[in-house]
Specification:
The chain is mainly alpha-helical. Helix content is 83%, strand content 4%. The protein has a domain at 2-91. A two-stranded antiparallel ribbon has the order 1-2. Strand 1 and strand 2 form a beta hairpin.
């Protein structure tokens, strides 16, 4: 609207300057204003021009205020996004640490299970070896009690199995 009024005021000034005489043709009508009418027409054209400039300035200030508010809102949004990204990174790092700790704990548990299993196997082997030794010792004691020491010697001596009293009988 302001630009239209500025164009109208400038157009009136150009019309007055373009005419050589005191009569003006406008839309098919001829005007012959006196000095007072000419002054009032100039004042009206200047008022229209100033009104147009004022409206342009007002719109410019309003749009500048709007841009400033928009820039502030963008800055706030950017700041909020930066905070959220920072919090996201912090939470991701925390999650990664927890995940690594859980993996270490799980790995430690697996290693402890493996050690426990290995210890149990070793204990089972020792127990089995002790049981075999005890069984062999009991068998030897039984043979000694039964009075067959020669059979025990025959089993332990190489090639003595053929010289046992039973083999000759």
């Amino acid at each position: 609207m302001g630009l239209l009024l500025v164009i109208l005021g400038v157009g009136a000034a150009i019309l007055v300057l373009a005419e050589e005489g005191t009569s003006y043709n406008l839309f098919g009508y001829t005007f012959q204003p006196n000095h007072v009418e000419m002054f009032l027409a100039g004042a009206a054209a200047a008022a229209v021009l100033l009104l147009g400039l004022w409206l342009i300035a007002l719109g410019s200030r309003r749009s500048a205020r709007h841009r400033r508010a928009l820039r502030g809102a963008r800055a706030d949004a950017s700041h909020r996004v930066a905070e959220l990204e920072s919090e996201k990174r912090r939470l991701q790092e925390k999650l990664e640490k927890e995940h690594a700790a859980n993996q270490r704990t799980a790995a430690d548990e697996r290693a402890a299970d493996r050690r426990t299993t290995a210890d149990e196997r070793a204990a089972d082997r020792r127990t089995a070896a002790e049981e075999r030794a005890a069984t062999a010792e009991r068998a030897e004691d039984d043979r000694l009690v039964a009075g067959r020491p020669e059979q025990n010697q025959a089993m332990t001596a190489p090639g003595a199995g053929a010289s046992s009293p039973r083999a000759g009988a």
